[in-house]
Automatic annotation (TrEMBL):
Sequence ranges assigned to domain TRNA-binding in this UniProt record: 70-176
Keyword vocabulary terms for this entry: RNA-binding, tRNA-binding
SUPFAM superfamilies hit by this protein: Nucleic acid-binding proteins
Keyword Cell membrane belongs to the record: no
Annotated segments matching region Disordered: 21-63
Entries under Pfam families matching the protein: tRNA_bind
GO terms assigned for molecular function: tRNA binding
Protein name, per record: tRNA-binding domain-containing protein
Biased composition (Basic and acidic residues): 30-40
Amino acid sequence: TMSKSALDLLNDLIAELENAVESSTVKETASNKKEAKEKLPVPPKQPKVKAESKKVAAAPTPSDQKEAININAIDLRVGIIRKVTKHETAEKLYCEEIDVGEDAPRAIASGLVPYYSLEQMQDRKLIVVCNLKARNLVGFKSHGMVLCASTVDENGVHRVEFVDPPASAKPGDRIVAEGLVAIEPFSPSKVDKSKAFEVVAPDLKVDHEGVAHWQGYRLVCLTNGGTGAESCIAPTLRNANVA
């Protein structure tokens, strides 16, 4: 074989040196990258956050809702005054015994002396609020109240008169607001605690024909075992309050 010239040998040596340098550079670069990677700070492992499920509040049930108060929560009944006397010391009070269909008449006091005579009170048919808590009126324990219309006329005179039940009504017949949901009357303690009568009383009125209403619902007497429904009427007062 032909021997290589000095120039060829020199070129071969240069090529070997270049290859050696290139190989060394590649290894060094790889090593540097590895070291750099190892030196990089490792971020702390983040805890997994559990997705929070949204809780939807359940719709309130009827038992959770405050019970609505309307006039039918008040026990209005037809009564007849069986006995009446003037109070011993209170000059404006009558003391009555009123038959409301119970075993015994109810003792009720009414401030009606300025408006009715004893003769007008005796045997009078009227409407009684029967589920009020008993209270002492000048030493007389009263177990209810009678329902009257009242107004002040153009001369400034205060006028009061009974709201009359239908002529066919009997003691104990119930008075209700026609068109409202029928509910059991509240107990006296519940009426007292909820202030039910104070809630409904401002909306008790007689209209331009003297017919008694509550919030526009006509007050009717359930006669003939509840099959009849006749109006309750103030004899002469019109567009007046009832209490």
